[in-house]
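User: Show me a protein chain along with its predicted structure.
Assistant: Here is one chain, sequence first, then structure tokens.
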Amino acid sequence: MPSNENPANDISFWNSVGSSFPSLKGAPSTAYYAECERLLFTIFFPKLNERRILKTDLWDEAKNTEILLWAAKQGAKPAGVDIAFDTVRQAKTVMQGYDPAFAMADLRALPFQPETFDLIYSMETIEHFQDYETAVQQMFRALKPHGVAIIGVPNRYDPFLRPLMVWGLQRLGQYAYGLELSFTPRQLKELAKSAGFIVTGLTGILFMPGWLRMLDLLFHTRFPRLTPLTRWAISPFVWLYRHVAWVRRHGYLIAVVVEKRAPK
């Protein structure tokens, strides 16, 4: 994720992240994250077979949940972009055998023809640069009429105050993901509408304290023998997410489900 000054344009920073950032795969909180994403797909992208899906970054494939691999196993035709060469390379390795249409490119200038994709999945991407409106407009351009997109960002109203934690870490120069904006549900809806989308739903993922996710990743990457502690601490939040649908809108990531209506 980008640096603090002008992160979205700092390709060297992204390349450094792609090449040196440790894998988060296997961490208890990553397993929870992946479960949340699969539930999103099951509810909002129920028909994946033979449908072309675009992911707006390839971080998950290279380092995190491998959600696009899961979608490909359900029959989806995967595509994706990322600004970092090593992230694209690692994602291609993960997706080997599924013929992914991956490109090293900026989401704000997608290298695809208009109305190419049936589905678009964008989670934790647009908050890392100031001109996020351009990114959402590009998604609208790339989506087919009647296509569906999920656009997720950090929740300004996170009950566990993650945006405040991120702000403090950024001020100290200790936040590894660079610039990270947060949005209210209303701001996210208005952003989607401004690009031409019809908002059909509001949801979210990762109902848990942000500090617990960070602690879990620290244990996973540096002190793996301690991960049973964070697995135990995360388990109540996993149970709530599975059984109490209300909490999903209050995760530290919120998401709008949007549709591109066909022109009249």
